[in-house]
Amino acid sequence: MTTAPTTPVLALPAPHSGGCPFGPPPAYPEAAATGPMTRAKLPDGDLCWLVTGFAEVRTVLSDRRFSADIRHPAFPLLVAGARELITDNPDFLRLDDPEHARQRRMLTGEFLVKRVEELRPEIQRIVDEALDRMTAGRTTADLVTDFALPVPSLVICLLLGVPYEDHDRFQSLSRTMLSRESTVEQLREAQEGVLEYLRDLTTRKRAQPEDDVLSRLAARDDLSAEDAAAMGVLLLVAGHETTANMIALSTALLLDHPEQIPGLADPATLPGAVEELLRLLTIVHTGLPRVALEDVELGGVTVRAGEGVMAMLSTANRDEAVFGGAGRRATDELDLHRDARRQLAFGFGVHQCLGQPLARAELQIALETLFRRLPELRPAGERAFRTESFIYGMRSLPVTW
Amino acid sequence: MQVSVDRDRCCSSGMCVTNAPEVFDQDDRDSLVMLRQTVVPPEQFDDVRLAAELCPGRAITVTGDGPARTGA
Description:
heterodimer, A: 401 residues, alpha+beta, six-stranded mixed beta sheet, three-stranded antiparallel beta sheet, 13 strands, 10% strand, B: alpha+beta, two-stranded antiparallel sheet, two-stranded antiparallel ribbon, 2 helices
């Protein structure tokens, strides 16, 4: 051999083949093992940086030199040809301050920790009623369709003021929007379909306001109808896909580790157990996209202005230096007694998940109630994961009790 | 230990209230961070340090946090 083998550049998004079904695509931890910054290639052919280290991910997400504005011509996109779908009115997740902060602040009052605490009895009622329906007159169910999906869907519909009867319609559209198997044309149709649904709904709310988030947004004179609809789409999709998949994956993982289920029963340890589930499962496997606005020294390399970066939450959340330690299981394993409070599953920086107090409350209540009421819960057949989705999750989880 | 907050940097994630509820609150009027107390008793040092570390907007500053200060 006279030439050194060259490492092929990692193609994004990496496939979900092999490895643990609860973990990210194996290529990401393999890249993390070589260093915090790895060269990668986007579907359109552009090179970008895969940022896998804990400190580097925090920097990318909190340093204003990295932009979240999807309208930037070099913003990294994980679907080939998707740049033509970008509108002049992206939701505020894909904008920088000051416009991002202006829109986000219209919603922060809805997700205050104390407001979410006041919602706990209502969430408990929704969880109990879902379990009542799931167990009525039968001993098997698909935990995904009978519990994990309806609970967050009912909660976000209630908060936003979206009729739950419409959930089939917006769930199938949001599935298409989040699938990496969708064509650009399918993405366009789904995006337009869900926007159209929210436009109609916010128009109705403006005419006949009720006590819900969409009515309050529709009533504002400092938010255009188009921005209000985009905000509604973001809240609706983010509000149920993420939590639904966290409930399903957490349940499946705990059924694989029944010795750890008692960690959910004690109110003192339940919040920490949920942080550990968030850390290990980190369902946004593909990472969070940003683009550098100027040259930045990071993790031993220079990220050039105009280069895309992908902040990989899943590998940052497996950093042994942060989450490992004496007496703890390896960071790619579940350990409900681990201190996982530094986990980055909700992101970091000014875009950090606005609904995280709600997500935590839903996960704590759903998982504690499920295993308390069904202590004999166990798998009952082949489970299926949603490997094609940008939000990782489960398609089905047959259970009995 | 003393703690101060920069409300211009606050993005209302609620992480501080989640991690140190005795010290931090969210303002009902604008959702931004509010302090319940500015001087922190020693039993809350760890929670407040964690809240500062995890604040996504880096809006929390902790001072007078040297180990010598915890002595007699």
